[in-house]
Amino acid sequence: MSYHIELFHSLLSDFLQGESALLTTENDVLMVRGKNPVSYGTLVTAANTVSKYLKLAEGDIALLNDPYSGGTTLDEITFIMAVSEDLIWVNRLPLNKNLSFGKSIEEEGLRIPPTPLRQKGQLNEMILGAMGAHPACPPQFMEWIKTQCASMIVSAQKLHDTIEGTGLSVTGELIEDYLQLSKKLAVQKISERASGETRVDVVLDSGELLRLNLEIQDGRVMMDFGGTSAAKTLHLTESAAYGTCFKAISAFYGFDQYANTGSFSILQVTKPAGCWLMAKYPASTMKGMTCGVAALQTAIDLALSHIHSKNERALDSHAPLMVQMKHDSSQIFLSLEGGAGATGEVDGQNAHIEGLSIETLERNFPVHVHRMDRRNSQGGKGKHNGGRGMIFKVEALDEMQLSWLTDMTLHRPRIPKNCSHGDASEVTLEQAGSTKSLPVLGQQKILKGEILSFCSGSGGGHGRPEQKVIAE
User: Fold this and answer.
1) 102-107 contacts, C-beta under 8 A, 24 or more apart
2) Of 81, 125, 126, 320, which residue is least crowded by CB atoms under 10 Å?
Protein backbone atom coordinates (compact mmCIF):
# COMPACT_ATOMS: atom_id res chain seq x y z
CA MET A 1 0.00 0.00 0.00
CA SER A 2 1.50 3.34 -1.05
CA TYR A 3 2.08 6.20 1.36
CA HIS A 4 -0.55 8.38 -0.35
CA ILE A 5 -3.22 5.69 -0.12
CA GLU A 6 -2.41 5.02 3.54
CA LEU A 7 -2.62 8.74 4.27
CA PHE A 8 -5.91 9.05 2.38
CA HIS A 9 -7.42 6.13 4.31
CA SER A 10 -6.23 7.63 7.59
CA LEU A 11 -7.78 11.01 6.76
CA LEU A 12 -11.12 9.39 5.93
CA SER A 13 -11.09 7.32 9.13
CA ASP A 14 -10.28 10.32 11.31
CA PHE A 15 -12.92 12.53 9.71
CA LEU A 16 -15.84 10.10 9.74
CA GLN A 17 -17.19 9.59 13.24
CA GLY A 18 -20.36 7.80 14.35
CA GLU A 19 -22.77 6.88 11.56
CA SER A 20 -21.32 8.68 8.55
CA ALA A 21 -20.08 8.37 4.99
CA LEU A 22 -18.10 10.31 2.39
CA LEU A 23 -18.86 10.06 -1.33
CA THR A 24 -17.81 11.81 -4.51
CA THR A 25 -20.30 13.70 -6.64
CA GLU A 26 -19.66 10.95 -9.21
CA ASN A 27 -21.34 8.50 -6.76
CA ASP A 28 -18.15 6.72 -5.72
CA VAL A 29 -18.39 5.72 -2.06
CA LEU A 30 -15.06 6.49 -0.38
CA MET A 31 -15.90 5.21 3.09
CA VAL A 32 -18.84 4.30 5.32
CA ARG A 33 -18.50 4.00 9.09
CA GLY A 34 -20.92 3.13 11.86
CA LYS A 35 -22.05 0.60 14.44
CA ASN A 36 -25.52 0.23 12.98
CA PRO A 37 -25.39 -2.34 10.15
CA VAL A 38 -28.05 -0.54 8.10
CA SER A 39 -25.75 2.50 7.79
CA TYR A 40 -23.67 0.70 5.16
CA GLY A 41 -26.56 0.89 2.72
CA THR A 42 -28.83 3.69 3.90
CA LEU A 43 -26.22 6.46 4.13
CA VAL A 44 -25.28 5.86 0.50
CA THR A 45 -28.93 5.88 -0.53
CA ALA A 46 -29.48 9.14 1.36
CA ALA A 47 -26.67 10.83 -0.56
CA ASN A 48 -27.89 9.48 -3.90
CA THR A 49 -31.49 10.49 -3.22
CA VAL A 50 -30.52 14.05 -2.29
CA SER A 51 -28.23 14.32 -5.32
CA LYS A 52 -31.12 13.21 -7.52
CA TYR A 53 -33.58 15.84 -6.32
CA LEU A 54 -31.40 18.68 -4.99
CA LYS A 55 -28.34 20.47 -6.38
CA LEU A 56 -26.02 21.09 -3.44
CA ALA A 57 -23.31 23.72 -3.83
CA GLU A 58 -20.25 23.71 -1.56
CA GLY A 59 -21.38 24.41 2.02
CA ASP A 60 -25.04 23.53 1.36
CA ILE A 61 -26.77 21.10 3.73
CA ALA A 62 -29.91 18.99 3.26
CA LEU A 63 -31.59 16.69 5.76
CA LEU A 64 -34.01 13.76 5.88
CA ASN A 65 -35.28 11.00 8.13
CA ASP A 66 -37.56 9.23 5.66
CA PRO A 67 -36.61 5.51 5.52
CA TYR A 68 -37.65 5.39 1.87
CA SER A 69 -35.13 8.11 1.01
CA GLY A 70 -32.18 6.60 2.89
CA GLY A 71 -33.18 7.17 6.51
CA THR A 72 -33.66 4.55 9.21
CA THR A 73 -36.26 5.35 11.86
CA LEU A 74 -37.89 8.74 12.27
CA ASP A 75 -36.00 9.47 15.49
CA GLU A 76 -32.69 9.67 13.60
CA ILE A 77 -31.86 12.67 11.39
CA THR A 78 -29.56 12.30 8.39
CA PHE A 79 -27.63 15.38 7.24
CA ILE A 80 -26.15 15.58 3.74
CA MET A 81 -23.52 18.26 3.13
CA ALA A 82 -21.47 19.24 0.10
CA VAL A 83 -18.08 19.73 1.76
CA SER A 84 -16.51 20.70 -1.58
CA GLU A 85 -17.33 20.72 -5.26
CA ASP A 86 -16.44 17.02 -5.41
CA LEU A 87 -17.30 15.51 -2.01
CA ILE A 88 -20.59 14.74 -0.22
CA TRP A 89 -20.63 14.06 3.52
CA VAL A 90 -23.51 12.13 5.10
CA ASN A 91 -23.86 12.29 8.88
CA ARG A 92 -26.61 10.62 10.95
CA LEU A 93 -27.49 11.60 14.52
CA PRO A 94 -30.14 10.36 17.00
CA LEU A 95 -32.79 12.77 18.28
CA ASN A 96 -35.14 11.90 21.16
CA LYS A 97 -35.24 8.11 20.68
CA ASN A 98 -38.83 6.99 20.47
CA LEU A 99 -40.67 3.66 20.19
CA SER A 100 -43.66 3.97 17.90
CA PHE A 101 -45.75 1.12 16.48
CA GLY A 102 -47.89 2.82 13.87
CA LYS A 103 -49.42 0.88 11.01
CA SER A 104 -47.79 3.26 8.52
CA ILE A 105 -44.68 5.42 8.50
CA GLU A 106 -46.86 8.52 8.74
CA GLU A 107 -48.17 7.38 12.13
CA GLU A 108 -44.67 7.02 13.59
CA GLY A 109 -43.89 10.73 13.76
CA LEU A 110 -42.62 13.62 11.67
CA ARG A 111 -41.39 12.23 8.34
CA ILE A 112 -38.91 14.48 6.53
CA PRO A 113 -38.18 13.76 2.85
CA PRO A 114 -34.98 15.21 1.29
CA THR A 115 -35.20 18.87 2.27
CA PRO A 116 -32.80 21.80 1.61
CA LEU A 117 -31.70 23.26 4.95
CA ARG A 118 -28.71 25.51 4.30
CA GLN A 119 -28.12 27.30 1.01
CA LYS A 120 -25.63 30.05 0.14
CA GLY A 121 -24.52 30.21 3.74
CA GLN A 122 -28.01 30.75 5.17
CA LEU A 123 -30.37 28.41 7.05
CA ASN A 124 -33.87 28.15 5.61
CA GLU A 125 -35.82 29.45 8.61
CA MET A 126 -39.14 29.06 6.80
CA ILE A 127 -38.65 25.32 6.30
CA LEU A 128 -37.37 24.91 9.85
CA GLY A 129 -40.42 26.75 11.17
CA ALA A 130 -42.76 24.51 9.21
CA MET A 131 -41.11 21.42 10.67
CA GLY A 132 -41.25 22.89 14.17
CA ALA A 133 -44.98 23.57 13.82
CA HIS A 134 -45.77 19.92 13.04
CA PRO A 135 -47.67 18.27 15.94
CA ALA A 136 -45.23 15.34 15.99
CA CYS A 137 -42.12 17.52 15.99
CA PRO A 138 -39.84 16.73 18.98
CA PRO A 139 -39.19 19.50 21.52
CA GLN A 140 -36.16 21.77 20.89
CA PHE A 141 -35.98 20.39 17.35
CA MET A 142 -35.07 23.69 15.67
CA GLU A 143 -32.34 24.53 18.18
CA TRP A 144 -30.86 21.04 17.88
CA ILE A 145 -30.82 21.23 14.07
CA LYS A 146 -29.02 24.59 14.15
CA THR A 147 -26.43 23.23 16.59
CA GLN A 148 -25.70 20.21 14.38
CA CYS A 149 -25.37 22.37 11.26
CA ALA A 150 -22.90 24.67 12.99
CA SER A 151 -20.86 21.66 14.14
CA MET A 152 -20.78 20.18 10.63
CA ILE A 153 -19.58 23.46 9.13
CA VAL A 154 -16.67 23.52 11.58
CA SER A 155 -15.82 19.85 10.89
CA ALA A 156 -15.91 20.40 7.12
CA GLN A 157 -13.45 23.28 7.43
CA LYS A 158 -11.16 21.11 9.54
CA LEU A 159 -11.19 18.49 6.78
CA HIS A 160 -10.16 21.12 4.23
CA ASP A 161 -7.39 22.36 6.53
CA THR A 162 -6.15 18.83 7.25
CA ILE A 163 -5.96 17.88 3.57
CA GLU A 164 -4.19 21.15 2.78
CA GLY A 165 -1.81 20.67 5.72
CA THR A 166 -0.75 17.21 4.57
CA GLY A 167 -0.21 18.37 1.01
CA LEU A 168 -2.23 15.41 -0.24
CA SER A 169 -3.73 15.88 -3.68
CA VAL A 170 -7.06 14.02 -3.82
CA THR A 171 -7.13 13.19 -7.51
CA GLY A 172 -9.36 10.87 -9.51
CA GLU A 173 -6.36 8.56 -9.92
CA LEU A 174 -5.81 8.37 -6.15
CA ILE A 175 -9.48 7.57 -5.55
CA GLU A 176 -9.47 4.89 -8.25
CA ASP A 177 -6.34 3.28 -6.81
CA TYR A 178 -7.84 3.34 -3.31
CA LEU A 179 -11.09 1.70 -4.41
CA GLN A 180 -9.25 -0.94 -6.42
CA LEU A 181 -7.01 -1.73 -3.46
CA SER A 182 -10.07 -2.05 -1.20
CA LYS A 183 -11.64 -4.51 -3.62
CA LYS A 184 -8.43 -6.51 -3.84
CA LEU A 185 -8.18 -6.64 -0.05
CA ALA A 186 -11.78 -7.87 0.29
CA VAL A 187 -11.29 -10.58 -2.34
CA GLN A 188 -8.05 -11.70 -0.67
CA LYS A 189 -9.63 -11.88 2.80
CA ILE A 190 -12.52 -13.99 1.50
CA SER A 191 -10.31 -16.25 -0.64
CA GLU A 192 -8.13 -17.11 2.34
CA ARG A 193 -11.07 -18.89 3.95
CA ALA A 194 -13.19 -21.86 2.88
CA SER A 195 -15.64 -21.66 -0.03
CA GLY A 196 -19.03 -23.30 -0.23
CA GLU A 197 -22.77 -22.81 -0.17
CA THR A 198 -25.58 -23.36 2.30
CA ARG A 199 -29.20 -22.50 3.05
CA VAL A 200 -30.63 -21.12 6.28
CA ASP A 201 -34.24 -20.51 7.32
CA VAL A 202 -35.23 -18.19 10.16
CA VAL A 203 -38.89 -17.99 11.20
CA LEU A 204 -40.03 -14.86 13.00
CA ASP A 205 -42.72 -14.76 15.67
CA SER A 206 -44.65 -12.34 13.51
CA GLY A 207 -45.04 -15.02 10.83
CA GLU A 208 -42.43 -13.97 8.28
CA LEU A 209 -39.93 -16.45 6.86
CA LEU A 210 -36.36 -15.38 6.10
CA ARG A 211 -34.62 -17.75 3.69
CA LEU A 212 -30.98 -17.20 2.83
CA ASN A 213 -29.06 -19.10 0.17
CA LEU A 214 -25.39 -18.16 0.66
CA GLU A 215 -22.63 -18.99 -1.81
CA ILE A 216 -18.96 -18.03 -1.39
CA GLN A 217 -16.68 -18.63 -4.34
CA ASP A 218 -13.51 -17.04 -5.79
CA GLY A 219 -13.50 -14.16 -3.33
CA ARG A 220 -17.12 -13.26 -4.03
CA VAL A 221 -20.24 -13.56 -1.86
CA MET A 222 -23.69 -14.23 -3.33
CA MET A 223 -26.77 -13.92 -1.12
CA ASP A 224 -30.06 -15.04 -2.58
CA PHE A 225 -33.17 -14.49 -0.47
CA GLY A 226 -35.49 -16.36 -2.82
CA GLY A 227 -38.25 -17.98 -0.78
CA THR A 228 -38.36 -15.17 1.79
CA SER A 229 -41.98 -14.36 2.55
CA ALA A 230 -43.98 -11.19 2.09
CA ALA A 231 -44.30 -8.82 5.04
CA LYS A 232 -46.86 -9.29 7.77
CA THR A 233 -45.66 -6.87 10.43
CA LEU A 234 -41.95 -6.48 9.58
CA HIS A 235 -40.78 -4.17 6.79
CA LEU A 236 -37.11 -3.50 6.00
CA THR A 237 -36.02 -1.18 3.20
CA GLU A 238 -33.83 -2.53 0.41
CA SER A 239 -30.88 -0.29 1.29
CA ALA A 240 -31.07 -1.24 4.98
CA ALA A 241 -31.09 -4.93 4.06
CA TYR A 242 -28.07 -4.53 1.79
CA GLY A 243 -26.18 -2.58 4.45
CA THR A 244 -26.84 -5.31 7.02
CA CYS A 245 -25.58 -7.98 4.61
CA PHE A 246 -22.40 -6.06 3.82
CA LYS A 247 -21.61 -5.24 7.43
CA ALA A 248 -22.03 -8.87 8.50
CA ILE A 249 -19.79 -10.16 5.70
CA SER A 250 -17.11 -7.47 5.97
CA ALA A 251 -16.89 -7.79 9.77
CA PHE A 252 -16.62 -11.59 9.55
CA TYR A 253 -13.76 -11.47 7.02
CA GLY A 254 -12.10 -8.39 8.49
CA PHE A 255 -12.39 -5.68 5.83
CA ASP A 256 -15.15 -3.55 7.36
CA GLN A 257 -12.69 -0.66 7.77
CA TYR A 258 -12.59 -0.53 3.96
CA ALA A 259 -16.31 -0.13 3.27
CA ASN A 260 -16.55 1.58 -0.10
CA THR A 261 -17.44 1.11 -3.74
CA GLY A 262 -14.49 -1.24 -4.21
CA SER A 263 -15.35 -3.66 -1.41
CA PHE A 264 -19.10 -3.37 -2.09
CA SER A 265 -18.47 -4.98 -5.47
CA ILE A 266 -17.67 -8.39 -3.93
CA LEU A 267 -21.23 -8.76 -2.60
CA GLN A 268 -24.25 -9.62 -4.71
CA VAL A 269 -27.66 -9.60 -3.01
CA THR A 270 -30.79 -10.91 -4.72
CA LYS A 271 -34.25 -10.48 -3.19
CA PRO A 272 -37.65 -11.47 -4.59
CA ALA A 273 -40.08 -8.66 -5.29
CA GLY A 274 -42.67 -8.25 -2.56
CA CYS A 275 -40.65 -9.87 0.25
CA TRP A 276 -40.30 -8.12 3.60
CA LEU A 277 -36.71 -7.13 2.76
CA MET A 278 -38.02 -4.70 0.14
CA ALA A 279 -40.43 -2.48 2.06
CA LYS A 280 -42.60 -0.06 0.11
CA TYR A 281 -44.01 3.25 1.27
CA PRO A 282 -46.02 3.84 3.46
CA ALA A 283 -45.24 0.69 5.50
CA SER A 284 -43.97 1.25 9.04
CA THR A 285 -40.25 0.40 9.38
CA MET A 286 -39.61 0.58 13.16
CA LYS A 287 -39.82 -3.18 13.74
CA GLY A 288 -37.99 -4.00 10.52
CA MET A 289 -35.07 -1.68 11.30
CA THR A 290 -34.63 -3.35 14.69
CA CYS A 291 -36.01 -6.89 14.94
CA GLY A 292 -35.78 -7.47 11.19
CA VAL A 293 -32.12 -6.45 11.11
CA ALA A 294 -31.38 -8.76 14.06
CA ALA A 295 -33.02 -11.70 12.26
CA LEU A 296 -31.00 -10.97 9.13
CA GLN A 297 -27.75 -10.86 11.14
CA THR A 298 -28.64 -14.18 12.79
CA ALA A 299 -29.28 -15.85 9.42
CA ILE A 300 -25.98 -14.62 7.96
CA ASP A 301 -23.99 -15.62 11.06
CA LEU A 302 -25.54 -19.07 10.98
CA ALA A 303 -24.85 -19.52 7.26
CA LEU A 304 -21.21 -18.45 7.68
CA SER A 305 -20.86 -20.88 10.57
CA HIS A 306 -22.06 -23.72 8.32
CA ILE A 307 -19.52 -22.92 5.61
CA HIS A 308 -16.63 -22.13 7.96
CA SER A 309 -17.20 -24.97 10.42
CA LYS A 310 -13.57 -24.89 11.60
CA ASN A 311 -14.16 -21.36 12.90
CA GLU A 312 -17.63 -22.07 14.23
CA ARG A 313 -19.13 -19.71 16.80
CA ALA A 314 -22.43 -19.68 18.63
CA LEU A 315 -25.07 -17.09 17.85
CA ASP A 316 -25.02 -13.60 19.29
CA SER A 317 -28.15 -12.09 20.80
CA HIS A 318 -28.41 -9.39 18.13
CA ALA A 319 -31.74 -7.82 19.11
CA PRO A 320 -31.52 -5.24 21.90
CA LEU A 321 -34.39 -4.93 24.36
CA MET A 322 -35.71 -1.39 23.92
CA VAL A 323 -37.78 0.20 26.68
CA GLN A 324 -39.58 3.52 26.80
CA MET A 325 -41.39 4.84 29.87
CA LYS A 326 -43.45 8.05 29.85
CA HIS A 327 -44.76 10.02 32.82
CA ASP A 328 -46.51 13.34 32.18
CA SER A 329 -44.13 15.34 29.97
CA SER A 330 -40.99 13.35 30.83
CA GLN A 331 -39.77 10.06 29.41
CA ILE A 332 -36.81 7.69 29.51
CA PHE A 333 -35.51 5.38 26.79
CA LEU A 334 -33.23 2.40 27.40
CA SER A 335 -31.62 -0.05 25.01
CA LEU A 336 -30.34 -3.21 26.71
CA GLU A 337 -27.86 -5.06 24.51
CA GLY A 338 -27.63 -8.85 24.46
CA GLY A 339 -24.63 -11.10 25.07
CA ALA A 340 -22.28 -12.42 22.38
CA GLY A 341 -21.90 -16.04 21.33
CA ALA A 342 -18.98 -18.20 22.45
CA THR A 343 -16.41 -19.76 20.14
CA GLY A 344 -14.45 -22.99 20.38
CA GLU A 345 -11.75 -21.05 22.23
CA VAL A 346 -13.33 -18.37 24.45
CA ASP A 347 -16.54 -17.43 26.24
CA GLY A 348 -18.85 -14.89 24.64
CA GLN A 349 -18.63 -11.26 25.72
CA ASN A 350 -21.12 -10.16 28.36
CA ALA A 351 -23.53 -7.33 27.63
CA HIS A 352 -23.06 -3.96 29.29
CA ILE A 353 -24.82 -0.62 29.46
CA GLU A 354 -23.04 2.73 29.36
CA GLY A 355 -23.92 6.20 30.53
CA LEU A 356 -26.88 5.31 32.77
CA SER A 357 -26.88 6.72 36.30
CA ILE A 358 -29.38 5.05 38.65
CA GLU A 359 -29.22 8.09 40.94
CA THR A 360 -30.08 10.48 38.12
CA LEU A 361 -32.82 8.18 36.83
CA GLU A 362 -34.53 7.91 40.21
CA ARG A 363 -34.21 11.64 40.82
CA ASN A 364 -35.81 12.64 37.51
CA PHE A 365 -38.36 9.87 37.04
CA PRO A 366 -40.88 8.20 39.42
CA VAL A 367 -39.18 4.80 39.63
CA HIS A 368 -37.14 2.82 42.12
CA VAL A 369 -34.44 0.62 40.58
CA HIS A 370 -34.24 -2.76 42.30
CA ARG A 371 -31.52 -4.19 40.13
CA MET A 372 -29.38 -3.38 37.09
CA ASP A 373 -26.66 -5.88 36.29
CA ARG A 374 -26.07 -9.04 34.26
CA ARG A 375 -28.78 -11.66 34.33
CA ASN A 376 -28.24 -15.20 35.60
CA SER A 377 -28.43 -17.02 32.29
CA GLN A 378 -29.73 -20.57 32.13
CA GLY A 379 -29.11 -21.02 28.39
CA GLY A 380 -25.90 -20.56 26.43
CA LYS A 381 -24.00 -23.13 28.48
CA GLY A 382 -21.11 -25.16 27.12
CA LYS A 383 -17.40 -25.71 27.40
CA HIS A 384 -17.37 -22.00 26.64
CA ASN A 385 -20.43 -20.08 27.82
CA GLY A 386 -22.29 -17.42 25.91
CA GLY A 387 -22.11 -13.83 27.09
CA ARG A 388 -24.76 -12.91 29.65
CA GLY A 389 -27.47 -10.38 28.90
CA MET A 390 -28.60 -7.50 31.11
CA ILE A 391 -31.40 -7.33 33.68
CA PHE A 392 -33.11 -4.08 34.60
CA LYS A 393 -35.68 -4.39 37.39
CA VAL A 394 -37.67 -1.31 38.30
CA GLU A 395 -40.69 -0.42 40.45
CA ALA A 396 -43.18 2.25 39.35
CA LEU A 397 -43.73 4.94 41.99
CA ASP A 398 -46.56 6.48 39.97
CA GLU A 399 -48.74 5.58 37.01
CA MET A 400 -46.90 5.63 33.68
CA GLN A 401 -47.07 4.44 30.07
CA LEU A 402 -44.73 1.66 28.95
CA SER A 403 -43.61 0.67 25.43
CA TRP A 404 -41.14 -2.13 24.70
CA LEU A 405 -39.70 -4.07 21.78
CA THR A 406 -37.30 -6.99 21.67
CA ASP A 407 -36.29 -10.09 19.70
CA MET A 408 -38.93 -11.42 17.31
CA THR A 409 -37.07 -14.63 16.43
CA LEU A 410 -37.92 -16.65 19.52
CA HIS A 411 -38.62 -19.60 17.21
CA ARG A 412 -35.01 -20.73 17.37
CA PRO A 413 -33.30 -21.72 14.11
CA ARG A 414 -31.46 -25.01 13.81
CA ILE A 415 -27.85 -24.57 14.96
CA PRO A 416 -24.66 -26.69 14.74
CA LYS A 417 -24.54 -29.60 17.20
CA ASN A 418 -21.56 -28.09 19.00
CA CYS A 419 -23.54 -24.97 19.86
CA SER A 420 -26.39 -24.17 22.22
CA HIS A 421 -28.94 -21.38 22.22
CA GLY A 422 -28.68 -18.59 24.74
CA ASP A 423 -31.62 -17.31 26.77
CA ALA A 424 -34.21 -15.26 24.94
CA SER A 425 -35.13 -11.74 25.97
CA GLU A 426 -37.85 -11.53 28.62
CA VAL A 427 -40.19 -8.87 29.97
CA THR A 428 -42.17 -9.69 33.13
CA LEU A 429 -44.63 -7.74 35.25
CA GLU A 430 -45.19 -8.29 38.98
CA GLN A 431 -48.59 -7.15 40.23
CA ALA A 432 -50.69 -8.10 43.24
CA GLY A 433 -48.27 -10.85 44.26
CA SER A 434 -48.20 -12.61 40.88
CA THR A 435 -45.79 -12.47 37.97
CA LYS A 436 -46.71 -12.69 34.30
CA SER A 437 -44.66 -12.67 31.12
CA LEU A 438 -45.36 -9.95 28.57
CA PRO A 439 -45.15 -10.46 24.78
CA VAL A 440 -42.11 -9.47 22.71
CA LEU A 441 -43.53 -6.03 21.98
CA GLY A 442 -46.34 -3.90 23.24
CA GLN A 443 -47.64 -0.80 24.99
CA GLN A 444 -49.57 -0.66 28.25
CA LYS A 445 -50.26 1.39 31.36
CA ILE A 446 -48.19 0.57 34.43
CA LEU A 447 -49.72 1.26 37.84
CA LYS A 448 -48.02 2.51 40.99
CA GLY A 449 -46.34 -0.34 42.87
CA GLU A 450 -46.01 -2.67 39.87
CA ILE A 451 -42.55 -4.08 39.22
CA LEU A 452 -41.06 -4.64 35.76
CA SER A 453 -38.12 -6.88 34.90
CA PHE A 454 -36.41 -6.44 31.53
CA CYS A 455 -33.90 -9.13 30.53
CA SER A 456 -31.92 -8.89 27.30
CA GLY A 457 -30.87 -12.11 25.58
CA SER A 458 -27.71 -14.06 26.27
CA GLY A 459 -25.28 -15.40 23.68
CA GLY A 460 -25.11 -19.05 22.69
CA GLY A 461 -22.63 -21.50 24.21
CA HIS A 462 -20.07 -23.64 22.38
CA GLY A 463 -18.97 -27.20 23.12
CA ARG A 464 -20.19 -29.71 25.64
CA PRO A 465 -19.86 -28.66 29.28
CA GLU A 466 -16.97 -30.32 31.05
CA GLN A 467 -18.09 -33.05 33.44
CA LYS A 468 -17.07 -32.54 37.04
CA VAL A 469 -15.50 -35.60 38.68
CA ILE A 470 -16.75 -36.13 42.22
CA ALA A 471 -14.29 -37.95 44.45
CA GLU A 472 -15.66 -40.85 46.46
Assistant:
1) 102/284, 102/286, 103/284, 104/282, 104/283, 104/284, 105/66, 105/67, 105/68, 105/74, 105/281, 105/282, 105/283, 105/284, 105/285, 106/282, 107/284
2) 126
